[in-house]
Design brief:
By secondary structure, this protein is of the alpha/beta class. The chain folds into five domains: 84 residues, Beta-grasp domain (Ubiquitin-like (UB roll)); 93 residues, Elongation Factor Tu (Ef-tu), domain 3, CATH 2.40.30; 131 residues, Nucleotide-binding domain of ferredoxin-NADP reductase (FNR) module (Rossmann fold); 125 residues, Globin-like (Orthogonal Bundle), CATH 1.10.490.10; 56 residues, Wheat Germ Agglutinin (Isolectin 2), domain 1, CATH 3.30.60. It is built from 17 helices and 24 strands. α6 links the parallel β12 and β13. α9 packs antiparallel against α16, α12 crosses α13 and α15 runs antiparallel to α16. The protein is globular and about 70 Å long. Bound molecules: flavin-adenine dinucleotide (FAD) and FE2/S2 (inorganic) cluster. Keywords: Heme, Iron, Metal-binding, Transport. This is 2Fe-2S iron-sulfur cluster binding domain-containing protein.
Length: 524
């Protein structure tokens, strides 16, 4: 076992762990995304000790020379001292070489970075202005073929960066870029498999690049490209994609419009309806790419899991705004209809409890998941999850715990860790012999809360639409009876309780005095 010193604390790295795992297990606030050495989001710098070649694979030479490495794939052979990345190394100057208006609201930028930059279409860059304003844009071009780094920017009427790009940025101007980042790219190992690419708005930019990349690699499977919008102006690559499809028998381009007056030859309706309700209701074995409007991306993930797509085969870049997502779990939960068929198949409860028993036994043994249950008894975790799922599936009102966002608001959980947890959950469900269509439906339901749970920084609790600061206690009036997180006794409707703002724990008046030393928190 090796140790890693970071930000004034020492973390032990167990033999099976990466440095990132050890940091997260120890509660360090570090960014990460793919956890497999492709997106570079987790980049750190070695001050002492060698990170090893695997942890530097694919990094620009300047970053390697300055000892930057990716902790998610770093398994050190010696103790290390590590630090934040050197920000001056992360950005490089770049010049706008060409710009073309592709539609009234979308402009294409062709960018020349000051140093050699190797990217793969589907990755993204962070573009930073002189005053520090920074936004992400996905790459549409292929480094080996196109020379320029190309991005397509949609104008957001009250948006700071996109308005500046559209109205002020001129050819010859300099700015800074960071990247390439992200792992939503074509991989040769996908050759022969059917690909489905779904984008809305400028989400088609990375998908266009990925499609050209797949064709350039003589991809042998079928390739379906879906572009959704409201009006014809939104389908700004209609001609290019149509031509590409004419040239390649295995490429199918399907434009979709959800507005009025849809011209002939264009599907009238939502792009996700066309993909999953009409063309691919069973998409097991397909690789799925999703880019653009986050609502579409998360909707499509839900349908995809229901259609049997493996979680590892979904590559997604939701174009999240720079402002934090404000969830409305209550509205989401209210919109979910009970599932009497599934509830019946769970023997109206006992089989659900048995599945959860198996799942939590595996979870409490699991080195990556068990730290989230520090100080929570397994029976309590099972009871909370049982109450939540029983209410959703049966439609009977009996859950009085936190909603999914608030139950996880302080936990840093990547898409990859979410998938890891879901795989374990699905294995427990399958062990109990539910029919395939019910397994898929249940797993799709779980998918509905990914956006509430996955995040790279801690959030505060959200109550009545307001996000509360993360530390300290507040006194709350209890609107629905609940259980004290200290003594497990009932707290009645109308009572007051002390709530820990980070963990969301509630303590009855008797327990309040000891609550600060007794923090718990369990993912739902
Ligand atoms: C990985 C990734 C890839 C992306 N790729 C692309 C791409 O290829 N092309 C593209 O066009 N875009 C892309 N985006 C989106 C892009 O990064 C920007 O979010 C977008 O250009 C808007 O930035 P802006 O500065 O113009 O707008 P902003 O100033 O960020 O405003 C965006 C919206 O937020 C609202 N807003 C303002 N203040 C607040 C506040 N305090 N709280 C909540 N909301 C507020 C504004 O009214 C506006 O509607 C991508 C995003 C990500 C994460
Ligand atoms: S490279 Fe480490 S999280 Fe993606």
């Amino acid at each position: 076992m090796k140790s890693v010193q970071y930000d004034g604390a020492i973390y032990s790295v167990q033999n099976h762990e990466s440095v990132l795992d050890a940091l997260l297990r120890g509660g360090a606030d570090v960014s990460f995304s793919c956890r497999k050495g492709s997106c570079q989001t987790c980049l750190l710098r070695a001050v002492e000790g060698e990170p090893g070649p695997d942890a530097q694979k694919g990094l620009r030479q300047e970053l390697v020379d300055s000892a930057h490495f990716m902790p998610c794939v770093c398994h050190p052979d010696e103790d290390m001292v590590i630090a934040q990345p050197d920000l001056s190394q992360m950005f490089m100057p770049a010049m706008l070489s060409e710009r073309t208006q592709l539609s009234p609201s979308v402009t294409r930028l062709r960018i020349e970075p000051a140093r050699d930059l190797n990217w793969t279409p589907g990755q993204y860059i962070n573009l930073r202005r002189d005053d520090g304003l920074m936004r992400s844009y996905s790459i549409a071009s292929i480094a080996e073929v196109d020379y320029f780094l190309e991005v397509h920017v949609r104008r957001v009427d009250d948006g700071q960066m996109s308005r500046w790009i559209h109205d002020e940025l001129a050819v010859g101007d300099f700015f800074e870029v960071q990247g390439p980042l992200g792992a939503c790219t074509y991989r040769e190992e996908f050759d022969g498999r059917p690909l489905i690419l779904v984008g809305t708005g400028t989400g088609i930019a990375p998908l266009y690049g990925i499609t050209r990349d797949a064709l350039r690699h003589d991809h042998e499977g079928e390739i379906w490209v879906y572009h959704g919008g409201r009006t014809m102006d939104d389908l700004y690559l209609h001609a290019e994609l149509g031509e590409l499809a004419d040239e390649h028998d295995n490429l199918h381009y399907v434009p979709c419009l959800s507005g009025d007056d849809v011209p002939e030859g264009i599907f009238a309706g939502r792009v996700t309806d066309r993909v999953f309700k009409e063309d691919h209701p069973d998409a097991a074995g397909h690789v799925l790419y999703l880019c653009g409007n986050p609502d579409m991306v998360y909707d499509a993930r839900y349908y995809a899991i229901g259609a049997g797509v493996a979680r590892a085969d979904v590559l997604a870049d939701p174009f999240e705004s720079a402002y934090p997502y404000m969830p409305d779990d209550d509205a989401k939960l209210e919109a979910i209809a009970p599932d009497p068929e599934l509830w019946e198949a769970l023997d109206k409860g006992p089989k659900l409890r048995a599945i959860l028993q198996d799942f939590y036994e595996a979870t409490y043994e699991d080195p990556r998941l068990s730290p989230f249950f520090h100080n929570v008894t397994m029976q309590r975790a099972i009871s909370k999850q049982y109450a939540f799922l029983a209410e959703v599936f049966s439609g009977e009102d009996n859950y009085f715990g936190l909603n999914p966002f608030n139950a996880h608001h302080w936990m840093i959980i990547s898409d990859e860790l979410f998938d890891y947890r879901e795989e374990l959950f699905e294995a427990s469900v399958r062990k109990h012999g539910l029919p395939e269509h019910l397994v898929r439906r249940w797993m799709a339901f779980q998918e509905l809360f990914r956006r509430e749970i996955v995040k790279s920084t801690q959030r505060g609790l959200i109550m009545n639409g307001v996000e509360h600061k993360k530390e300290g206690f507040s006194v709350e009036e209890i609107l629905i009876a609940t259980i004290c997180d200290g003594c497990m006794g009932e707290i009645n409707e109308g009572d007051t309780a002390r709530m820990h703002k980070r963990t969301g724990q509630l303590f009855c008046t008797e327990c309040a005095a000891t609550s600060a030393t007794n923090e718990v928190g369990a993912p739902a």
